[in-house]
Amino acid sequence: MGMTTYSFADVSAVVSHPSLGQYVANGAGLGSIRVTMATENTKHDVAADGSVMVTKTIGKNGTIAFEIQQTSGFDQWLRNSYNYLYTADTSQWAQMSIVIRSPIMGDLITATGCAFKIRPERPYEADGQKVTWEIMAANIDEFVA
After folding, report:
1. Alpha carbons 25 and 76: distance in angstroms, whole number
2. pLDDT tens, residue by residue, 7-65
3. How far is CA 131 from the centre of its chain?
């Protein structure tokens, strides 16, 4: 049998904005990254006689969620970015881009037209917690080597 290996330590994400610079997230304080597409690319319409019309819908929009430690530098950068963009000119709101790389898996994901979905809950508990930042993307492309 063959063997494969995976390590989240090999995954990196770069979040960029023209007015804010970039943050490279590659492990420190990062718990998970989840890429979720929003548009269903196939839809079915079923007629009374049972015939099915298949519709192909083009859409590459979705959400990228970063689950991170609430004390991490990445959380601080995202909080500062959110606060800046919330009060900045509207033209800046969706100028973020995200690049996620997983060299071992051969994955490269690029997302453009990115904007914060909502400011995450801010937990205050006896033990440190994680927060989840959801960023909506107008276009997500995935390349597999």
Report:
1. 12
2. 888 899 999 999 999 999 987 788 899 999 999 999 999 999 999 999 999 999 999 99
3. 14
Contact 104, 24 (CB under 8 A): no
DSSP character at residue 39: S
Strand order in the sheet with 12-17: 21-25, 12-17, 96-102, 107-118, 130-144, 62-69, 30-37
**Cβ neighbours of residue 98 under 8 Å, at least 6 residues apart?**
13, 14, 15, 16, 64, 109, 110, 111, 114, 135, 137
- Residue closest to 61 by CA, chosen among 13, 112, 102, 15: 112
pLDDT-above-90 percentage for the chain: 79
Q: Which residues pair with 143 in a beta bridge?
A: 108
Domains delineated in the chain: 8-144 (2.40.30)
Task: Write phi, then psi, for 143 (nearest 5 degrees).
Answer: -120, 130
Q: Which amino acid is at 140?
A: I
**Closest C-alpha to 38, from 64, 63, 66:** 63
